[in-house]
Amino acid sequence: MNIYRNPFTVGLWAPAYLLVGTITITTDFLLTAMYILATLAIIGAYVTEFPMLPSHYMNEVAHKTSIATLMGMLLGLVLFLGFTGFSEQTDSSPISASGKFFITWTVMSAPAYLLMVFFVSQINKRDLEAEHAVREERKKQRGRTSHPPLMNRDGF
After folding, report:
1. What is the number of other CB atoms lying within 10 angstroms of the CB of residue 115?
2. Cβ neighbours of 64 (radius 10 Å)
3. Alpha-carbon distance 154 to 139, whole Å?
């Protein structure tokens, strides 16, 4: 198997991407909002078929990384609240800043890595070039309709 398509190796992109997310979460709420919006922008670029990276496989991996990151953040929050409880009691044991960083990153990265391994294993089963050719053919068929287009994407 190609090491660059191994799900366990490619799955490490989610924890690596979450390192930036952990910095934003432990630092500032505005940075966290910007991080989430940038992650949603990656998903939006993939959905609108905007080529961010040179190959279809890389675009697919970027899309799955952003989905796994958002799901990791959500599942990490649920796991964290499930283990610590929903009460707002003050804890007398101090946690250092590096401890908070490591706990936050671990809680988010564990589910994101598992999701990423699953997503990449599903990507490897597909023929992305054939899917892209079918999509392009459908675009051409839609372009031959009798009504005038509202906006020609190639005319920019």
Report:
1. 21
2. 23
3. 12
Exposure string of 82-98, with b = 16+ CB inside 10 Å and e = fewer, is eeeeeeeeeeeeeeeee
Give residue 104's identity as a one-letter amino acid code. Answer: T
CA 142 to CA 40: how far, in whole Å? 27
Tokens of 95: 């946690």
Can you tell me which residue has the tokens 């929903």? Answer: 86
Q: Where are the domains of the chain?
A: 17-84+98-141
What secondary structure letter does DSSP report for 12? T
Q: Residue written as tokens 């958002």? A: 70
- 74-129 pLDDT, tens digit per residue, is 988 887 777 766 666 666 667 787 888 888 899 899 999 999 999 999 988 888 88
Q: Which residue has the tokens 């409880």?
A: 85
Question: Taking a C-beta distance cutoff of 8 angstroms, is the pair 105, 24 a contact?
Answer: no
The residue to which tokens 């990449």 are assigned: 120
